[in-house]
Predict the structure.
Amino acid sequence: MNLALTTISIFFWLLLLYYSILTVAGIIYRGQKRPHTPLDHYPSVSILIPAHNEAVVISDTLYAMTKIKYPGRLDIYLLNDNSQDETGNIASFYEEAFDYIHHIEVPPGTPKGKSRVLNYGISISQSDYVCVYDADNQPEPGALQLLVEAAETTPEAIGAVGYVKTINERTNFLTRMIALEFSSFQLIMQSGRWKLFKLGSLTGTNVVIRRKALLNAGGFDPYALAEDADLTLTLTQNGGLLPIVPEARTWEQEPENLRVWIKQRTRWMQGNLYLIEKTLKEPKFFKGRNFIHSAQLLIIYIGFVSFLLVSDTWFVLGLFGKMKSDTAVPLMTIWFESWLIYFIQLSASQVIEKRMKLSDLVVSFLMYFTYAQLWVLLLARGVYFQIKLKRSKKEPMWDKTVRFKKSA
Amino acid sequence: MKYYLNPLLLLLGLLLTFTWAEIVLEQYFIFIILLSMALIGLLSIMVRPIFSFSVLVTFILALGFLNVGFSWNKHLGIIAQGMNIQLQVVITIGVTLAWICGYCLQSNSNEIKTLKREIERLQKVEENTGFLTFNEFLAQAHLLFTGMKRRKEQGFLVKLHFNKEEVAYKARIISESLSKIILQSIRAEYDIACHLNSSDILIFLNNTNETGVEIVVERITRAIKKTKGLDSALRHIESVEVLDNWDATHSLIQSWRKGEKIA
């Protein structure tokens, strides 16, 4: 028992060390002043917005798209994936009003989902860069220009990744937790990985990718439910860099209730499990810089959850006096440090953005005991649905995230 | 962030930390806390906040790793682990408060500098001389220029170059006397004047001609010669008719300000 506990603890402690180093590197990267580097010539860009029944949010999204300031040629494609609501009418209205906005009816097909729609968008557009925004996104006017500038001026870059912020953050505790999670784990961790290893991960939205690199990678894998993570591996394997541009921001709507959140995250979990399976089958994904990506996938989805389970079990057994506390491993200290590091990561991102409030501090304090614990449930659901999918031999079903109406 | 910069809360936080440390910790650890706080506080005043913040985070994380390493190595029981965690928490809170204090001082100081610059920019008249500030001169000159051109009138820019007085207490008196003479020599309701730099004064004479300029220059020269201590101050006077468009006039004034001569 002690040996197993010691092994897991050492492994977990190394994991925490890795995340601590990433945190500090991320903070340093965020603090570095990056000079604005305007280009002599701005390459053409096609923005692809996949949309399936997005009437609740799409007008705000398209309105935000009209405010984008980009010095080069820009075309915006609303890829309407058989919407049955007002999405088509809204898109047609914008198409008539703006000559660079195009409403494209995507022909029905399988497998259903974002990847197939994006691949169709790539096939009908012609531009140097492809940019992807989700249908609920409202990018800031300068975001695209910053992304293209980073992609063009960073040596060996084949694209760039921006920062996704939560537009409905103040709605409830759940959205606040999601916002904190995004700003910390997505931004600081991404920045840290870029600073230390020159590694960037596509985020599914607010990204630009050079068309040539995208075509070389074979486009998006239509069977992948986490198409962004999947493409990241292929692009990294092909040798391209994806710089992180924290200043290029987009605002995205996040799930406002637990049911929608669990469904969305289960899909992400399934997507990542599919990816883990793919990486384990193909050793090439563990070579070169991809090693960090693949190892991280395993660490997060298997390592982290395993320790979480051990930690919780130890905690519960300890409460009922069933576990001897004076073991060879200082579990209480490790447990405290785990919480502290998690709390520091969340708080640091708020300090960097100069917006920390007492409520954020309280939510950050509680997140380890609540939000983070839901990973166990997500993993269980993800594994269950992935096994079910495998057995049924059906194509993966894209479970679209439900959008919420803006409160008046 | 503003919430945490409330001095009362900061003071309260520091007092609580010290009280806590005094109650539960040995003198040796209190010294460590104070030293850490002093170093982090000093750093947060001296370098950019983001870098001192990364040092703070590194320090807190390192402390955590040290604590685990120590507890592991010494096979500490749960009570001893609890005591160490308490020590770690006190140090962490202490250094965080010290960082916030330093950050607060630095950001307040930067804010004061910015506000001073803004006040300088918004100030219309120099307090001691009664001259317009340079920015205000440019703003008023632009208005005069527009009206003048609409009425098809002539206007002149007159630059008076003086010997630069290096001794500060003398320079102040000379500057005030010269300003007084100039303000008395021009038409207070129509013409404007300002300091271009420490040795040049600029006058904008509007709705006048060469003869009008000569009269003003003569009046100034005479008054300067009559005034004790100023008789040798004036080196030379340049005058030029206001150009046809404002951008060119503006550029000319800016080049004079930098000390360039008329081509």
